[in-house]
Design brief:
The chain contains 19 helices and no strands. By secondary structure, it is mostly helical. α9 packs across α11 and α16 runs antiparallel to α17.
Length: 365
């Protein structure tokens, strides 16, 4: 083996390098190398000089000296044989390992070449075609995807096709019933993939929450978001119509984006954006919705109970959906003070809030 060969003669540069790496990584190889090296060093290197006939003297000396065990007893021979055998097997193992590594590299390169030459699957072709049709605003893209999904349910790209189908139904056709069905299928059939799609979660929630009203609240929200003029005021109107709902929450997010709010999941950034947003609100009901979101961020994200309580205490009882939700939070955070203090209350709303809220209450009786 390489170990035995290295002791008796110099190895090639490549073999020496390979042996050094093996000795460094494998303690058994190092022990074997050290034992074999020690054994070789103890072998006699020269024969004693012959001077005359020493046989009679040697025979007499042998008779007088007690018999000692020879170094070359069967146990020593067996041990040496075992060491050489282990060396041979180690060399064979290392050689096989080197061959296997070279074979693996070669096999990987072959696979890469095969993948480069492989033709796109039917699902990949369908996704490409749907994208081109989407660019042309051709709604037949959904038909292409639906057919590909039906014919190739086990394709590894089927989950991407299902998501794209749902997005096209929601965005381009505003076919909300079909979009809800597509998102629900994605959630049921591909739960692992679904867990990494927060936007899809939000959309399905909006669809399910407005299904009983034939998606009218969602249509109003999308119309306000698509407005090129007075978008902020129109989003406030959506909140006034649907306070305390997922639609109102989505409208708050859209309002924050319309005034350049930071897109961040961090609690401090969310709170800063909502604090800036509430100074721009012109409708007390919209302000109450923003205060509710602000209380949630202070409470759940930033663990600041005092500011959370102050935010929830600003929500008037004349908006029942928000007031009830705020009271649930206050049951845990503690009751409001008799006269709420803090920077959260914008007193300029105090006078007109009762007028607007009363008008809203009468209109919805």
């Amino acid at each position: 083996g390489l170990i035995a060969a290295s002791i008796y003669e110099p190895l090639s540069t490549e073999d020496q390098h390979f042996l050094d790496e093996a000795l460094e990584k494998n303690p058994e190889y190092r022990q074997e190398f050290e034992e074999l090296s020690a054994f070789v060093k103890n072998l006699p290197t020269e024969s004693p000089a012959y001077q005359g006939d020493l046989r009679p003297i040697l025979e007499e000396s042998i008779r007088e000296i007690p018999v000692r065990k020879s170094f070359w007893n069967p146990l020593h021979v067996a041990g040496l044989f075992a060491i050489l055998l282990v060396g041979l097997l180690s060399y064979q193992y290392i050689s096989v390992e080197r061959v296997e590594k070279k074979h693996a590299v070669s096999e990987e390169a072959s696979k890469s070449e095969e993948n480069a030459d492989a033709k796109p699957s039917a699902m990949e072709l369908a996704l490409d075609e749907a994208t081109q049709l989407q660019i042309k605003r051709d709604h037949s893209a959904v038909l292409v995807l639906a057919k590909a999904i039906e014919e190739n349910p086990d394709d590894p790209n089927v989950q991407d096709a299902q998501l794209k189908l749902a997005q096209l139904e929601y965005d381009h056709g505003q076919r909300f019933a079909e979009a809800q069905e597509a998102y629900a299928a994605l959630r049921i059939n591909h739960p692992d993939f679904w867990s990494y799609q927060p936007r899809a979660h939000k959309r399905l929630g909006l669809l399910e929450s407005t299904q009983q009203e034939d998606y009218a609240p969602l249509l109003a929200l999308n119309k306000a978001m698509a407005s090129s003029d007075e978008q902020f005021a129109k989003l406030e109107d959506v909140i006034v119509q649907y306070p305390g709902t997922l639609i109102a929450s989505a409208a708050v997010d859209a309002m924050r984006a319309s005034v350049g709010g930071l897109e961040s999941t961090g609690g401090a950034f969310q709170a800063a954006g909502l604090e800036a947003l509430r100074t721009k609100c012109t409708n007390p009901i919209a302000l109450a919705q923003v205060d509710y979101h602000l209380g949630e961020v202070y409470w759940k994200e930033m663990k600041d109970k005092d500011r959370a309580r102050a935010a929830f205490c600003q929500i008037p009882q004349t908006v029942p959906a928000l007031a009830q939700a705020a009271q649930v939070a206050l049951d845990e955070l503690g009751a409001c003070p008799v006269e709420p203090q803090g920077s959260l209350l914008n007193t300029s709303f105090a006078g007109k809030s009762m007028i607007v809220l009363t008008s809203f209450s009468i209109r919805h009786l």
